[in-house]
Amino acid sequence: MDTIHVMTRPERQVGQVQLITIVGISLVLMFALGLFAEFRVRASLIHWNDPVATYTTLRPALGLFSAGIFAFVVITFLDVVLSVAFCTLFVTLHRFVALLMTSLRLLYAAFQGVALVGLILARDLYAAAPTETVDLQVAHTAMQFLKLQHMGFALGLIFFGLHLILLGWLLRNVPEMPRVVVWVLFAAGIGYGLNSLALLFTPEATVVQTVIIVLFIIPMTFAELSLGGWLWVKRKRMATLLPG
Fold this sequence. Notes:
By secondary structure, the chain is mainly alpha-helical. It has one domain (10-241). It has helices spanning 9-45, 51-58, 62-90, 95-128, 136-171, 179-201, 206-233, 235-241. 36% of the residues are buried.
């Protein structure tokens, strides 16, 4: 007859330490991949208001562009991993909020994954285009695919922003969690939401978007990195603070 093994508190803490380690490493890795994909690839190769300039810049750099796509794929996978890990770690703090937070991040990952199709289609168009001259039809069609990814990603970031706000709300109930980390998560969530709404519904209001970026760029950039770093350093202590 099989027996059911009930985990003891020390055994649960070991599992929590392992999960927290995965979360910390994943967040730091996502930060590095995000910097590469956004700034080294998209920001340097894509000129949003100039399809021809994008063609001439991106067409000779398809290898770099493909590396950026791969980075986004890894980030999307890690988002799914983090969704499960966060839910497992924090469900005892508040079950409903933890499940809602997880659902929002999974929605964000789904939007991000589907939007990547735009980058792949644009890459394939550029790959089949001539290198000696600029094919205007390819340039304009590929730009539409790039904007498809851009807008899909922005829509997903609304759900991501809500996820960060709920994550901050959960973490404020964890003893010894630095208040600055919690407030940075709140600020980042608000920033992502406002920036995405401005991009989607007031695309010509560049001043509004610039103001939002200036106000929220620091929390938007470092929110999850600061959380990941703190969790990594305090992983053993954190496991003793979580109820379960």
